[in-house]
Design a protein that fits this description.
The protein has 117 residues and is mainly α. Helices cover 79% and strands 0% of the residues. The protein has a single domain, classed as Ribosomal protein L20, C-terminal domain (c-terminal domain of poly(a) binding protein, Orthogonal Bundle). It is rod-shaped and about 90 Å long. 13% of the residues are buried.
Length: 117
């Protein structure tokens, strides 16, 4: 007697992964083995880049703070040292947002930090 194979489940499993690889170029979208490899590699990239996103955003905040601090006559490292010395605890995300969107508030913080130098 031939063995029984659940074609419905295996076809649905393949269709699910093929639908996830829609939009890829050529065989990466419709050839089962290539599409499966593409999908698995995409999951690896997604995991890695969720970690890298934090690093990338921190670097962006630092660049923005540095640019705004130089307009006030300080470098980034001098500003961060002065903030620490003045006891002003504000994270880089908020500081970068102030530098971009509310330059007057950022300037006030810098003036407070300069007093401690």
């Amino acid at each position: 007697m031939p063995r029984s194979v659940n074609h419905v489940a295996s076809r649905n499993r393949r269709k699910k992964i093929l639908s996830l690889t829609r939009g890829n170029f050529g065989g990466r979208a419709n050839v089962w083995t290539v599409a499966k490899n593409t999908w698995e590699k995409g999951l690896q990239y997604a995991y890695r880049d969720r970690k890298n996103k934090k690093c990338t955003f921190r670097a962006l905040w630092i660049q923005r703070i540095n640019a705004a601090a130089r307009l006030e006559g300080l470098s980034y490292s001098q500003l961060m040292g002065a903030l620490k010395k003045a006891g002003i605890e504000i994270n880089r995300k908020v500081l970068a947002d102030l530098a971009m969107n509310q330059p007057q508030a950022f300037k006030a913080i810098v003036e407070q930090a300069k007093k401690s130098i």
